[in-house]
User: Fold this.
Amino acid sequence: MHYPHTHQQNTKYEIKKELEKADKNKDGCYTRDELKSAFKSLGSRIPSWRTQFALWNVDSNGDGQVSGHEIDALIDYIFDRLNNGHGKLN
Assistant:
């Protein structure tokens, strides 16, 4: 879903679809490993680093995964990083 070397923007819908693909057990919650997989699919050069920063920013209850209302915050976080970086997720 990442558009390398272009200025096309990933939509929130596309981001959500990539997250759903990464949800291995289909429970609607995203573990650290699932987030890392999603960030890799979205073009992050260092997905483990991006995962850690995402968790710091959106895991409001501190359980080490993203679930419930945190998912919307995660999608916004990814969307902002992609579109402020001209389609690149560092």
